[in-house]
Design goal:
heterodimer; A: ABC transporter involved in vitamin B12 uptake, BtuC; two-stranded antiparallel ribbon
Chain lengths: 346, 263
């Protein structure tokens, strides 16, 4: 929207795009078995074009490791990072609260509760999509409850929003614990899934997250300018020609859909949706049409780096949700402090 | 109630839950006038403006804008007609003044278009008119209350709508900037035949600028008519419950009001 910062934005987007591609290739190369980037490109090229001659002179196990073990996991990590960052931007933009993200609003817990229920009851009526559908329903119900709790006189109070999210999140955590208790022998499945992991990623998961991310990106870019104006408050945005109530509903549902699918595919991964929009807003300003794409790219890079660290660098594989919380928690404290001091750059 | 009316309100009422806020409002507003909306705190002035802008929907009765039911307009087409200067102004995120003023062009810019030369012209014009061109690149969260309020007025001017609604738009401004904004509003009414509907707490401002005054009390219209006829000691005593004296001020060539609290 600003006249002079277009060039900076394009440069940053280009740089982030290149970094994302590089991060994908480099992390594919890393691991127990080190694979040269050239071989990776040839394997991918062969898979895309069906030209088997590209695989000459490459060890027989390499294509399997790249295509079936590493790439699904790496792409899932990148897409989930992008999805969580994207929903963070949307939640923060609509709820006018820089501390809002899928995790602090309790949405992730709601999705996790729904998904745990599906895992426990071994629901398979919807086939492959049972867990995501349950996660989505859990996320939406949580969103409605949190918003209802923090609404006074028809206005959503930013101060009580996070508090409501924490309250509902705590109740849901207790609910999840109860489900674990009921789960008995199956408890390990739920526990490991909850801590968040990309270890069991599949191409189906990649497609599911990718499709929902693409959908969400198109919807949010479509309403990007409306979202900017909605930051002025309901009365202003209504009288500037924005269908505030409708756009708010559509965007909250979209963000919750992406969150729910990310949670269903990988478990709870916190703080990406909080940290990334903050850093990016610092770089490109508050215009959501710029913030959305750069946040998605930065989220992809950040989560991919974190996952590669736990997969290929650390001596033992720390659950990714634990790692992001350990890094993100202190960051959250800093934002909170700055906000209290009124020195936040927002 | 004829087709030349800008707004026609028939038997309009509104309530928050069981508490009635507006009752039996019947009123016609014509274009090209400066209207003052006057009354004590909580008498329903802001709700009245919200009904006119379509931010809220009346419980009973009908509101027509240009002889067509208000709810039949899309938000966008309404925003091309009506610009609101709200009382409060807050944005959680740091947009620049220029970006905020440009938001006034939102109803005129297609979804996937960039602002045109004309849009930038209106933005520049509005900032120049209010005298905030120097604040163009400042972040709104670094502005004083008064500067923010002037940025919002500039945004409403950039919207270039035939009707402007002010909800105590000058509450944080000092006397000079208050008069500046009211002078701009008066010029828009007199030179360009636009309509201004302003919630005003300062009765002397209302007396000086408004062609027409609407006095509200407890959700009803207590008195309305040309300011010269309605701005009287009796009306003020009835509506505000204070003792008032209205005198002619030769310096301003307008009526001036002075008050005493009823002990």
């Amino acid at each position: 929207m600003h006249r002079h910062s277009e060039k900076k934005f394009l440069l940053l987007t280009g740089a982030l795009l290149i970094c994302t591609v590089l991060a994908i290739i480099i992390s594919t190369a890393m691991g127990y078995m080190v694979i040269s980037p050239v071989d990776i490109l040839r394997v991918i090229g062969a898979a895309l074009t069906g030209d088997a001659s590209l695989l000459d002179s490459i060890e027989a196990t390499v294509p399997y490791v790249v295509m079936d073990v590493r790439l699904p996991r790496i792409l899932t990590a990148a897409l989930v990072g992008a999805g969580l960052a994207l929903s963070g931007v949307i939640y923060q933009g609509i709820l006018l609260n820089p501390l809002a993200d899928p995790y602090t609003l309790g949405i992730s817990s709601g999705a996790a509760f729904g998904a745990s229920l599906a895992l426990l009851a071994n629901v398979s009526m919807l086939g492959h999509f049972s867990t995501p559908v349950f996660a989505f329903v859990g996320a939406i119900l949580t969103l409605l409850l949190v918003m209802r709790l923090s609404t006074f006189n028809g206005q959503i109070s930013a101060q009580t929003l996070i508090l409501s999210g924490v309250i509902v999140g705590a109740i849901l955590s207790a609910g999840i614990s109860f489900l674990k208790y009921l789960a008995d022998e199956q408890v390990a499945i739920i526990i490991f899934w909850l801590m968040g992991s990309f270890a069991s990623s599949t191409w189906n998961g990649v497609l599911l997250v990718g499709a929902s991310l693409l959908f969400a990106m198109l919807v949010t870019l479509y309403y990007g300018r409306d979202l900017n104006i909605m930051s002025l408050g309901r009365r202003s945005s209504d009288t500037l020609g924005v269908e505030t109530a409708k756009v708010r509903k559509i965007l909250l549902l979209t963000a919750s859909l992406v969150t729910a699918i990310c949670v269903a595919v990988t478990g709870i991964i916190g703080f990406i949706g909080l940290i990334v929009p903050h850093l990016m807003r610092y770089l490109v300003g508050p215009d959501n049409r710029k913030l959305l794409p750069v946040s998605a790219l930065a989220g992809a890079i950040l989560l991919l780096l974190a996952d590669t660290m736990t997969r290929a660098v650390l001596p033992v594989e720390v659950p990714i949700g634990v790692l992001t919380a350990l890094i993100g928690g202190p960051f959250f404290c800093i934002i909170f402090r700055q906000k209290q001091k009124g020195k936040s750059y927002e | 109630m004829n087709n030349a009316d800008l707004f026609t309100l028939r038997d309009v009422s509104f309530a928050y839950g069981p508490t009635p806020v507006l009752q039996d409002v019947n009123l016609s507003l014509v274009p090209g006038k400066f209207y003052g909306l006057i009354g004590p705190n909580g008498c329903g002035k802001t709700t009245f403006l919200d009904l006119l802008t379509g931010c809220k929907k009346q419980l009973t009765g009908t509101i027509d804008y240009k002889a067509k039911e208000l709810s039949h307009y899309s938000k966008k087409s309404l925003a091309q007609q009506l610009a609101l200067v709200p009382q409060e102004f807050d944005t959680g995120f740091g947009f620049t003044v220029e970006e905020i003023v440009l938001m006034g062009r939102h109803p005129h810019i297609d979804r996937f278009s960039a602002p045109s030369k004309q849009d930038w012209f209106f933005v520049d014009q509005a900032m120049k008119c209010i005298g905030i061109t120097g604040l163009r690149d400042r972040y709104t969260n670094s502005l004083s209350g008064g500067q923010k309020q002037r940025a919002v007025v500039a945004r409403a001017l950039a919207q270039n709508a035939p009707v402007l609604l002010f909800d105590e738009a000058t509450s944080s401004l000092d006397v000079k900037y208050t008069l500046q904004i009211f002078n701009i509003a008066r010029k828009l009414v007199q030179m360009e035949k636009r309509t201004v509907i302003a919630v005003i707490h300062n009765l002397n401002l209302a007396a000086a600028y408004c062609d027409y005054s609407i006095f509200m009390k407890e959700g009803r219209i207590a008195q309305h008519g040309p300011t010269a006829d309605t701005m009287t000691a009796e009306t003020i005593a009835e509506v505000f419950d204070v003792q008032a004296k209205v005198v002619f001020d030769p310096f301003n060539q307008t009526r001036q009001v002075s008050f005493q609290y009823f002990e």
